[in-house]
Amino acid sequence: MTRTGWLKRMVLVSAPAMIVGGGVQAQTAPVPHLPIERGSPNLSLHGETIDALIAAFIADNDLPGLTLAIVQAPYIPRSSGYGKASLEFDELASTKTMWNIGPITQAFTAVAVMQLKEDGKLNLSDPISTHVAGLPAAWEKVTILQLMQHSSGIPDYRPKLDNTKRYAPLELIDLVRSAPLLFKSGTRVQMSATDATLLALAVEHASGMPYRDYIRVNQIEREGLLSTMFASDFAKSAKIDRPASHPNDNQHSHFKSEVPFINPVEPATGYQFIDGHMVAVAPEASSNLFGFGDLWSSAEDISKWDIGLAGSTLIKDAADRDVVYMPAKLANGTVVPAMIGWEFTHHPGFMEVKGNSPGFSSYLSRFTESDELVCVTLLTNKEGVDLTVLARQIAAAYRGETGPDVDQRQIVAQESKFNPADTIARIKSSLAAAKVPIFASVDHAENARGIGQQLRPTTVITFGNPKVGTKLMLENQAIGLDLPLRMLVWQDAQGRTWIGYPNLDTLADRYEVKAPATIKMMTGFMDGIARHVANVYAY
Fold first, then answer.
1. In CATH, what class is 411-534?
2. At what angle do helices 193-207 and 105-118 cross, to 10 degrees?
3. Which domain of life does this protein belong to (predicted)?
4. Sorting pLDDT into bands at 50, 70 and 90, what band is 241?
């Protein structure tokens, strides 16, 4: 089934981890324009360069550092680091800095599963109990495919982790062994690190190799990923230069006599923001996410691996690649726009995988249509940072049609995985759960039909908290013209559904309102609602 085909038959998720019927957004894949125009040196969006976008994002989110790589297959025309890889040491974010890539790891695990499937060493229909002994009875019939779909219903062990401890893989399983299934396997979707850890254990059983060795041989070495490894490899393979003392601000000396220490392959330090302070996280904490979030890599290496996904160097058969890189069809026949961490929107050929791990946030997007072939990797060493909107801005700087036709300095926008009706319903449900009153919902398309005009779906939902809005109006009543808060849901000419809301920093500047704490709180709320509504998985 083609990507366009799944769009025509997809049944959408309309609540977290719940699958229900929904409207279908049919669309036609664009015809490539030949010759394909690529390589423009003018990499800016609405007058802002990529560097300016990233610098502003780092400042707004108080990031220690960030790294970026761009693919225009088969090239990686841009790879760069910004800020610091460590706040304690003189270590800068560079092209070879390794960051914990968190949930992107499960995409490597999925590739390993498909490689073993192609070698005839496992089947996607195998019950996980075929490969992992001693599991609870309720888990025994869960299949490899259901684990990849995150439709197993097996609880996620992450909420029970103590990152000061180190767990063996089976000890991770033990954290949730006694918990009941969250739902009947094959009927719903909810991301669970336990699913990926079970898959990694299946890789070990089927291959006869330790999981990390299998990944190393069949992906890292095969694709020449010199800045990709696990934390257990740092002592042997990372080039860390941290002398006990140094006479000046530059701690580095090995690079003067040892070539591998020039632009070294070294790990970043991850941070959590706790009680107003940045707290370093031990790199070994990533090992607790076995098969789900334990891999470290540079943005440039992720881009190389990403290019490998496009062809047969990692997964040989196109039909097998489609299993991983197309929406999941559940056992009950429902099609969900997600698979093993990847999520899919109505932009033809688009897919993204993202999330958090101890001290880090990660993001990878792929625009796989033949006239686009743009991929964006962003990694940062602060946990809990949503990189989705920034990544789409960067992609649009390379190919304008990949993003929304709005200036994000005025309207913050991200693409929903769902159609307009389901997206609106999800917004209303999220506001109700947060006990935020909705004051009005205006369906502009319906109003247009009332006067005999046609308008693509366009709905504004107005809501807010009078206590917060009044605080701003006491400083400048004129801001009342833009209050209460509102979200716009619209479908563009390509059939994509967007969620947009005012950039509150810009709004505050326009009315000269000096209430940074309140604006930051409101921005966080709006971002959180949009993130919850737009995605299949909870982040």
1. alpha beta
2. 40
3. Bacteria
4. confident
Please give the structure tokens belonging to residue 38. 């690529």
pLDDT value at position 34?
Answer: 59
Confidence of residue 242 (pLDDT cuts 50, 70, 90): confident
The sign of the CA dihedral 514, 516, 517, 522 is: positive
DSSP strand pairing (270-274 vs 44-45): unpaired
Query: Would you say 154 and 195 are in contact if contact means Cβ atoms under 8 Å apart?
Result: yes
8 A C-beta contact, residue 358 and residue 371: no
Measuring CA to CA, which residue among 70, 33, 162 is closest to residue 398?
A: 70
152: DSSP letter? S
Q: Under CATH, what is the fold of the domain 54-403?
A: Beta-lactamase (3.40.710)
Cβ-based neighbour number of residue 20 at 10 Å: 13
SS3 367: strand
Domain ranges of the chain: 54-403, 411-534
What is the pTM for the complete model shown? 0.91
Rounded to a whole number of angstroms, the CA Rg of the chain reads 23
Our CA angle for 4, 101, 403, nearest 5°, is 40
